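Bug #77: duplicate submission created two jobs. Keeping one. Sequence:
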Amino acid sequence: MMAIDWNHFTPVAALAGGVLIGIAAAMFMLLNGRIAGISGVLGGLLRPSKGDVAWRLAFVLGLVGAPAVYGLVAVLPRPQIDAGYGPLVAAGLLVGIGTRYGSGCTSGHGVCGLSRLSLRSLAATLAFASL
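Kept job's structure:
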């Protein structure tokens, strides 16, 4: 189980993070004409099309690499996950299956879909946010 360190949580930091995510999603759409839905980006790497791999790979490497680089210059709390590899793999597979059946993930529906006023994204976001 993971816990939020409420002693270091600030609404300003949360707002700044949300603004940065929104700006990044808007820039990605404006500059590339694509939605920054992580499951779609990653899914495209699993079934690559010619000429469609480089930007997807750069996107995923940026998602993984940015926190690693930040960890070199900042002290980050060590996450503690009280689950074995079996439940984590099963959970990952269920999330992957759910994003396929739901036509997207939290970033696709919650960030990009809601900003486009998509009713399907509103329904999806309400469903996964309520659980």
